[in-house]
Amino acid sequence: MRIQYSIIFLSCLLFINITAQEIDIVDYLKRIEAGEIENVKNEIVMLRAANPNDPSVKFLDAVLTNDGNTALKKYEDVYLNSPQSRYADAALYRIFSYYYSLGVYNKAESYLNELKSRYPSSPYIKAADRNIPDHEESITDSFDKLSEIANTPPKQNVQQKFNFTVQAGAFLSFENADKLKNDLINSGYPSEVTPKSVGGSILNVVTVGKLLNEKEADPILNLLKQKFKLNGRVISIAN
Known about the structure:
By secondary structure, this protein is α+β, with helices and mostly antiparallel strands. It contains eleven helices and four strands; from the N terminus they run αααααααααβαββαβ.
């Protein structure tokens, strides 16, 4: 069950063939998932200075880049200039996800086809393969919508003045996030999925419960650990 709910990107790391020519960044990526983003950002300064041309380091730098346009260029650098890199297909998947999240579906589909053509054995193909809508939003509207999503706080019940919720997980795949949300609702707990911009990508954050104090989170934390094998964490709701 834990594997089922893991972020698709990190689950795909199991399929990566480590080569001696590139820096191993798997531990850094796991730490980013665990919430150590600022620590890794500090460490990558020296890592990048010592290995300026390493495609794996470039990919890690892209993951840590908050601005979507800048991150996109960095992913393109990895994919276009280091097509044999262990993260070339991951970079291409991120490019596809970026345009898909913006609603630029024609361009997203072209990158999905490129992923299938260049890397037919890539585990990201299954994660990326989805129904592409026929209509496409304008690029201006798409960027405006992405900016609005990234800067909109989670909805809250102002009258109840809830102070806390529990973050159950964060996923690149909306399908995985939505499944966990529905499983939690079926277990009797209100749950929702909120998009959040992290490291140049949109994560789908699953939260469960609306709490007045942190003590009320204990039953939810126990449920997550015992039934779903997840370590939830209590987070504040901005009032």
